[in-house]
């Protein structure tokens, strides 16, 4: 703290962290009455109690103040004539004790004069410690002083004072600290701990090195953190010692002290230690630099938070303290006391008192924001969720960060941050959006604007769309696609697009597409469809299906086919929304599109128009897809055969002509086409076999007689269809026929096989005939047993099986009453299975 600063300021002073590491402590200069005290006097020591603090001065006065620096005593205690060396306060805060170089020891009760003392010892008294239980009723009143020896004073019977020399101190007692039954004091040889109950020393912690040249009577810093842990700060060395019980195994059979003191951590620092205090598991060290500055003056003191290890330590943070007059002071002029329960630390110099306390959530956030660490601040307030913060919230921290991002032109990051910070607060969103608008960066926030349950004023979305319209037409189109038309006034945006199109010629197609979407949002579907067709954009199909615009399709069939024929046909055929007659009429001048439509229509198998357009399809298949023509001719009867034959004749589609000639009975001409034009003997044989006409076989044989290879082929194939003699007798004997021998052998084998099969079939047929006749007669003569639930095949009455001779049963299991078959002798077959052969009444 700089002495040139206004002393009336009660704000946190700026302490520079050497490495800009986030500090753990904040600093406030003590104000109020302490200001006047230090103007006319100087602080020499301090003692802090949870209720108050006592400040000793160079003029021998003791000031009792609250923690804010206000006097709480009606008058100042003039305890000594020279500087107060040390002040000690009992546990309850009822009594204070002080000492000075004037040889006096002063015991003062704040609430009673009982047990007060004002003693003159006749020697320099450097240290004093009052019994922590001094104010306990009925207890002994004790205090300890330190000079060249350590002396215990105890009030006895009749208020007499008993003196006990506990130890001689080499170089004098430098400081004393009392906790419970243990007293620790420091001398030039080290630190000794004394057990008042056992009246014995627990051991000496020796200095490892001799102290360097220091100001007269360098003060060793002792502090108990609890009844068993002692902190020692000596020159530039820190030790943490622990009191533990001695085990019987350590010194069996010896009568030694019950407790031992052991160092648990020792480490060195690079400054002189002016004070030491606990902070949870860490330590707070008040340090004074060893070397002067360039002008030979003292440097600023420092406050360090360190994490102790066994033989080392880690510095958590270190802050330079700009105390008044620091250039004139040495390490012995500074003091540090604390309130461990509150983690508050009182740093004292002759002309200044500063209170350091842990940063709370608000303090930490303020530091992070002031040092530009916005992301860390935002993370901290998000994790805290406002539980410990009184001055900061996620929203105000986030808005500070937003202002910073906008100021540094980090617009994309600012847009992302809005989504995290502003939440569902409509008013905040609108306020922040206008900030983006002022710097023409609405595009950066457009992706994050609320569009769900919470929406903003339509003007906000329109502003964003207008900015995209002017600066990024592609982005404008994307927003029009993504955003619900409920967010903005569609008519206003349409007008804006039309005005822009009139003034600019860039990105015309992009804006026309956006305009088509806007028209559809506005219910002007005819304009939207016209726009899509003009752009040749396939979204027109989606628009038609979504809004059922089938009546609008009638006049744009060909345009839709131009855009995407397959998709247009699929849409038209879906649910039969558009009459097929209308489509055929609209496409009558565009045969290719008509072909595509009728082909898809035929595949759909619509009952109401099945085969209706097959006559038209014949010509279209002939023009665009011949492979589909013959299958159509075969499966359909719904086309003019002669017209189809003419179409095929014009194009010389011989397979199709063969089929059509066969259908109209002109088999001879069909066979001639197969043999002369197609040269397909295999198909010709199959054709003759299919029609089973002797004249066709003769025509085929006549055609083949002049071609030896055809003769060979026929001899191998027709043996099973016709009498081979018909062909063999007509072959020119002088004709050379390759493979004739093998062909004749195969022909004769096929013919013999055919004859054999026919004879076998005849025998089987004759046998079956006589067997069936015999069975009919046998069943008539002998009768058979049948089920009672069977019916007569003639009268349909239920058969009663009593005398089977009254029944006639055929091999097919049909049965009749004899009286139902009046001409029984002439009945050879079942009249149900063969109704045309035998009749009955």
From TrEMBL:
InterPro entries: ARM-type_fold (IPR016024), Beta-prop_Vps41 (IPR057780), Clathrin_H-chain/VPS_repeat (IPR000547), TPR-like_helical_dom_sf (IPR011990), Vps41 (IPR016902), Vps41/Vps8 (IPR045111), WD40/YVTN_repeat-like_dom_sf (IPR015943), WD40_repeat_dom_sf (IPR036322). CHCR repeats lie at residues 556-713. The keyword Membrane does not apply. It is found in: Endosome membrane; Late endosome membrane; Early endosome membrane; Lysosome membrane. GO terms for cellular component: clathrin-coated vesicle; early endosome membrane; Golgi apparatus; HOPS complex; late endosome membrane; lysosomal membrane. PROSITE patterns: CHCR, WD_REPEATS_2, ZF_RING_2. It is a peripheral membrane protein. Belongs to the VPS41 family. This is Vacuolar protein sorting-associated protein 41 homolog. It comes from Fopius arisanus. The gene is Vps41.
